[in-house]
Write a structure and sequence with these properties.
- The structure is a single chain.
- By secondary structure, the chain is an alpha/beta fold.
- Among the domains are: 129 residues, Rossmann fold (3-Layer(aba) Sandwich), CATH 3.40.50.620; 96 residues, Glutamyl-tRNA Synthetase, Domain 3 (Glutamyl-tRNA Synthetase, domain 3, Alpha-Beta Complex); 76 residues, Glutamyl-tRNA Synthetase, domain 2.
- It is built from 12 helices and 28 strands.
- It starts with 27 loop residues before the first strand and ends with a strand.
- The protein binds one RNA strand through helix 4, strand 6, helix 6, helix 7 and helix 10.
RNA sequence: GCCCCUGUGGUGUAGACCGGUCAAUCAUGCGAGCCUCUCGAGCUCGCGACCCGGGUUCAAAUCCCGGCGGGGGCACCA
């Protein structure tokens, strides 16, 4: 139906246009991770969207480490995060760490205190909350700016212990959401910072440093998760105090991966307890884990961009990720034979064959060939077949050793025996096999369980990080080659 | 409890702001077939959705109201 109408192919896929682009001379976005844990799919969504938009509008993309909590920032994370971004082919035009910018935050804090737009609160958190929930000011709020500055200097000089004082931004005390009222901007911390060590003991809180940096760095579009809705309201109050224009905000919903814990806290806890093997434990949804399993960055990127910046929560299935990944892996991955739980089979009455040469990739002859040598034992050729394949086979059944020969299973006794039938391609079940020079392989499955088997000799020359397909088994990445070959499993 | 967001097939999305061309897009999934010396890939065909109820209108997935469902936030974390 609609024969003419249907021809219209102009259906635009990809991200929607960013709002307000015309209001700015240049689009500037940022990715602002807390270096307290590994990046996962959820973080990457923020990064990828921000990066993609910056590139689309020929703007600027900033990487900013939000490391203002000395309690949980981890030195190793800065580089792991950069690595993950590079792996996903993201480049950034500027890089900052908030821990380098404390003087800047202090200056603004002082300005706000002297202008009566902020105050140093020494109330206990319980007392403050009680007043706040009633919409009433705490006693500290009423003090003169001179007294505020005095308190502030005492904070900076180390005269106030952790938890004893906090700088609050004044807001409307009747704001409908109590969480927004007189929110905290800077606090005293006790632990040394991984980068700055003992140099500072007063650290800004998220909403304060984010606001200042977004303004100072000229960020035009803030793309972030909807869990920041209330934070945005808080930040707007600060922008008003300082007479700044709030950037355009774009929010997206939560991204759930079926059956996968994306939580940073849980991940870190698991690693500490030894429940998980590391940031790249194959059970995790971290970028490091996906990389380890052999997912290709383009697949992850395309999937995330296809989901786009929708405000609705999405729960992704692994199947979808697999489908995206197969598209890329299938093109690139060379093929090899692998038999899980190998079972020995003797094939009698065969021609005198020594080896067989096969293409590395069925669709790409230019990838080259591999050689599978054949082992002989007396008058028979020796093969190893996957245990599961042999249990299904019946005595008398004819099947084909793929790319080699047809045989009939003659005995399923203690040793499996078969008889040669012919070389010509036949319409019978085809199964993978290995013979001489087979290599032991350990496969790490996505649940971190192990499977063992033998692969053809050609895999011995593979390097770590190679992505390949074990035919009829799945796509894997070479995770280690010594002391033995270990492969991490991605998917079928 | 309080503040806020959201609801299109099994899943992820397009369409919604500017109602009609939407008997609703694309992908994935599932089913059938073709192709292929892999249970992978590719090709063809098929299955499958506008949360519910009102209202506005000649006309509603699209606008309004109510209900129900899902989610986020209410840290001296980010």
């Amino acid at each position: 139906m609609g024969p003419v109408e249907r021809l219209k192919p102009e259906e635009r896929r990809g991200l929607p246009e960013l709002p307000d682009v015309e209001k700015y001379p240049m689009v500037i976005t940022r990715f602002a991770p807390n270096p307290n844990g590994p990046l996962h799919l959820g973080h990457i969504r923020a990064a990828l969207l921000s990066h993609e938009y910056a590139r689309r509008y020929k703007g600027k993309f900033i990487l900013r480490f939000e490391d203002t909590n000395p309690e949980n920032a981890l030195l190793e994370m800065y580089e792991l995060i950069r690595r993950d971004l590079r792996w996903l082919d993201m480049s950034w035009d500027e890089e900052h760490a908030q821990s380098d910018r404390l003087e800047l935050y202090y200056n603004y804090a002082e300005q706000l205190l002297s202008e009566g737009k902020a105050y140093v609160c020494t109330c206990s958190i319980e007392d403050f909350r009680e007043l706040r929930d009633r919409g009433e000011p705490c006693p500290c709020r009423e003090l003169s700016s001179g007294e505020q500055l005095q308190r502030w200097r005492r904070m900076l000089a180390g005269g106030i212990a952790k938890g004893e004082a906090v700088v609050r931004i004044k807001t409307n005390l009747n704001h409908p959401n109590p969480a927004v009222r007189d929110w905290p901007a800077l606090r005293v911390t006790a632990k040394p910072h991984p980068r700055m060590e003992e140099r500072y003991s007063v650290w800004p809180l998220y909403n304060f440093s984010v606001s200042i940096d977004d303004h100072e760095m000229g960020v035009t579009h803030i793309i972030r998760g909807k869990e920041h809705e209330v934070n945005e309201q808080r930040q707007r109050t600060l922008f008003e105090h300082l007479g700044w224009k709030y950037p355009t905000a774009v929010q997206y919903g939560r991204l759930n991966m079926a059956g996968m814990a994306l939580s940073k806290t849980q991940t870190m806890q698991g690693i500490r307890d030894g429940e998980l093997t590391g940031y790249d434990d194959v059970r995790l949804g971290t970028i490091a884990a996906l990389r380890r399993r052999g997912f290709v960055p383009e697949a992850i990127k395309q999937l995330i961009l296809d989901i786009g910046p929708t405000l609705v929560d999405s729960s992704l299935s692994w199947e979808t990720l697999y489908a995206y990944n197969r598209k890329f892996s299938d093109e690139r991955a060379d093929r090899y034979f692998f038999v899980q739980n190998p079972v020995k089979v003797l094939v009698h009455k065969t021609p005198d064959l020594k080896q067989v040469r096969l293409r590395l990739h069925p669709g790409h002859p230019e990838h080259g060939e591999r050689i599978l040598p054949l082992a002989r034992e007396g008058d028979a050729l020796v093969f190893y077949l996957a245990g599961e394949d042999t249990t299904v086979l019946q005595e008398g059944q004819i099947f084909r050793l793929k790319d080699l020969m047809n045989v009939t299973l003659s005995s399923k006794g203690k040793v499996l025996e078969a008889e040669f039938q012919g070389l010509e391609l036949a319409d019978v079940p085809k199964i993978q096999w290995v013979s001489a020079g087979a290599v032991e392989v350990e496969v790490i499955k996505p649940d971190n369980s192990r499977e063992f088997g033998l692969a053809e000799p050609a895999v011995a020359g593979l390097k770590v990080d190679t992505i390949l397909q074990f035919e009829r088994y799945g796509f894997v990445r070479v995770d280690a080659v010594r002391p033995k070959l270990v492969a991490a499993y991605a998917h079928r």
